[in-house]
Write a structure and sequence with these properties.
Helix content: 25-40%
Strand content: 15-25%
CATH topology of one domain: Extracellular Endonuclease, Chain A
Number of strands: 9
Number of helices: 8
Structural class: alpha+beta
Strand order of the largest sheet: 1-2-3-4-7-8-9
CATH architecture of one domain: 3-Layer(aba) Sandwich
Low-confidence stretches: 1-43
Oligomer: single chain
CATH class of one domain: Alpha Beta
Largest sheet: 7 strands, mixed
CATH superfamily of one domain: Extracellular Endonuclease, subunit A
Radius of gyration: 18 Å
């Protein structure tokens, strides 16, 4: 039995019994009791982010989860995700719309379209984006949706300037609608983040599927539209080498943003992207 299939079996077993990663006696069914915390918004945030983190961790990280998506039937995927209070859809309306918040029917679901996987959290906001690269072909931007997402960020935080930022960049083939767009600090989006995306685009000459590419965003509470943090994970599937980068959603990606950008550029250069 392959490693990923053994992992899948383990997830099915522990999820059915107690929710993978759950404390003894705790069933993680997406309908847990009201948290006993003064800050309910923070508790909801924790529950939502912890849910997807737990799923990723139980599969050995985002890469393992995407491998599970790739090798499993829709029925198997839905059955496993149900244990985490999540759904799964293929090429759904959620991918083609541009709502400020996705409706309840699209929330807490993974949405697959043309080989990319997007997760919409329980509050109706984009949270994850997964793909394999290459192939690398630019995708047309949807300027209306991108502009709306940036303006929603400006309205939420008028002291800052936001773009509608792609999680998977359009130059990498990322989808142009809301499932792949979040309010992103304009300086960060056009600077250190764009440098990483453009460097990733130089990997186009490598064999298809050489890299696993994952973007995550997290929010400070359950109602904010503007993410507080961005993460980027890149793994060379041929060698197993990888890099994990973290940024704040402020100018430069935070005080360590330029250093993180440099680490990412160096990793890609050392892995044949020139």
């Amino acid at each position: 039995m392959s490693t990923i299939l053994r992992m899948t079996c383990a997830v099915w077993t522990c999820a059915a019994l107690a929710g993978c990663g759950a404390a003894p006696g705790e069933i993680y069914d997406g309908a847990s009791q009201e948290p006993n915390r003064a800050d309910r918004g923070a508790a909801e945030r924790d529950t939502q982010e912890e849910r997807v983190l737990r799923l990723e961790q139980d599969f050995g990280g985002p890469e393992g989860l995407m491998q599970f998506f790739e090798i499993s039937s829709e029925q198997e995927i839905r059955g496993t995700l149900e244990q985490y209070g999540m759904g799964y859809e293929v090429e759904t309306r959620a991918i083609t719309d541009c709502p400020q918040y996705f409706p309840a029917s699209d929330r807490s679901k993974w949405h697959q379209v043309t080989g990319e996987y997007y997760y919409i959290d329980g509050s109706g906001r984009p949270s994850r984006a997964y793909t394999y690269l290459p192939p690398i072909n630019s995708e047309a931007r949807n300027e209306t949706c991108q502009g709306n997402v940036g303006r929603w960020g400006d309205a939420e935080n008028p002291s800052n300037d936001y773009d509608g930022g792609h999680m998977i960049g359009s130059q990498l083939g990322g989808y142009g609608k809301r499932a792949n767009l979040v309010p992103q600090d304009a300086n960060f989006n056009r600077g250190n983040w764009a440098t990483l995306e453009n460097k990733m685009a130089t990997c186009a000459g490598l064999p298809n599927g050489r890299f696993y590419y994952s973007i995550s965003v997290s929010y400070s509470n359950s109602t904010k539209l503007v993410p507080s943090n961005f993460g980027m994970y890149i793994s060379n599937r041929a060698t197993g080498s990888n890099v994990s980068l973290s940024f704040s959603n402020i100018d430069y990606g935070g005080s360590g943003g330029t250093s993180e950008k440099n680490r990412g550029v160096s990793f890609l250069s050392n892995n044949g992207c020139n």
